[in-house]
Amino acid sequence: KAKDAGRNTFLDFVPEMNDMALKRLTLSNELRQALPRRELLLHYQPQVALDDGRLIGVEALLRWQHPEWGMISPAEFIPVAEESGLIEAIGAWVIEEACQQAVAWDQLGLPELSMSINCSTRQFLEPQALLDTVRTALRRSGLPPARLELEITETLIVQDIAKTQWLLEQFRALGVRIAIDDFGTGYSSLYYLKRLPIDKLKIDQSFVRDLVANPDDRTIAATVATLGHSLGLRVIAEGVETAEQLQILETMQCDEGQGYLWSRPLPAGQFIAWYRGTYGAPERAGLPQVGAR
Ligand code: C2E
Ligand code: MG
Ligand code: MG
Ligand code: MG
């Protein structure tokens, strides 16, 4: 994935290391230093309402800017962070940083955006710690809980249903929202969707990619949208790249979209520039309405 984007990956950098275990060890040793060295950063990708195009929120996507290896994809280092027990600290940093950023944008006059944060299954193994982390980040930043959305995957749901249910209920009580990421790629049963306090489904990008050419993908995407709406959930499509895909998603009454069609994930500064270029400067008239939640 990172290779496709023309970036150096860790594996490219040390081809002489044939031993996968050694690579992982080197990577985890470097990752341990990444937080204190301030090499981690967040990029933000817009989430847009399909009915009127207004900006609803952003998803925070973690990046690792290594001094020698360059930008490393989360797909490469999140698994290492999970294995080496670094994910809790990294995850806590992500939550803290993202909440602060959301409030910083408020102060710059942007509409009140929701902030979506990816949660690793590992973070849910310590439910009380995660809950404390979220509470602390909300308190310190002053971000209203309803503007924080945690993205979890189906893997997490099926792993320990009782624990997950307890934690999701705590988040619901706090006012924090929950989205199921990569929906349709895991093994969760529809029963869980009914039982758990969930707010949103994210149609996985693997179903969006060939939406135009593949009738099966179209059927799956439409079914997810209908299912979500029947359960009173919002539905967002991820990986939207073309106007044709967007048009099809609109016919499915999909609520929101996210993808390169609007913007790639951007560093905070560039996100502001994108926002102003797309919606006009906040000082000017015509400030887009914030989501009617
Ligand atoms: P995800 O949460 O499903 O995020 C969507 C991925 O699709 C992101 O990749 C995003 O850059 C990419 N994407 C967005 N729009 C498009 C598009 O139009 N076309 C294509 N081809 N791709 C698009 P990214 O940033 O490399 O992140 C990969 C995964 O890493 C994420 O998948 C998420 O599972 C994980 N991740 C990212 N940040 C964090 C984090 O802070 N914590 C944890 N635990 N996981 C994270
Ligand atoms: Mg996500
Ligand atoms: Mg996803
Ligand atoms: Mg994913």
List the helices and strands and how they pair.
Elements: H1 10-13, H2 20-34, E1 40-49, E2 55-66, E3 70-72, H3 74-83, H4 87-107, E4 114-118, H5 127-141, E5 148-152, H6 154-159, H7 161-174, E6 177-183, H8 190-195, E7 200-203, H9 205-208, H10 215-230, E8 234-238, H11 243-251, E9 256-258, E10 266-267, H12 268-279
Parallel strand pairs: 2-4, 4-5, 5-6, 6-7, 7-8, 8-9
Antiparallel strand pairs: 1-2, 1-9, 1-10, 2-3
This protein binds ligand C2E and magnesium ion (3 copies).
Order of helices and strands: HHEEEHHEHEHHEHEHHEHEEH
Tell me the radius of gyration. Answer: 19 Å
Enumerate the distinct ligands: ligand C2E, magnesium ion
Spans of 5+ residues with little confidence (pLDDT < 50)?
Answer: 1-6, 284-293
How would you sum up the major sheet?
8 strands, mixed, barrel
Helices, by number, come to 12
Oligomer: single chain
What portion of residues belong to β-strands? 15-25%
Helix content: 40-55%
Overall pLDDT score: 90
- Tell me the strand order in the biggest sheet: 1-2-4-5-6-7-8-9
Shape: globular
Category from helices, strands and their pairing: alpha/beta
The total of beta strands comes to 10
Q: What is the straight-line distance between the termini? A: 35 Å
Features:
single chain; 293 residues; alpha/beta; eight-stranded mixed beta barrel; 10 strands; 45% helix; globular; disordered N terminus; disordered C terminus; binds ligand C2E; binds magnesium ion
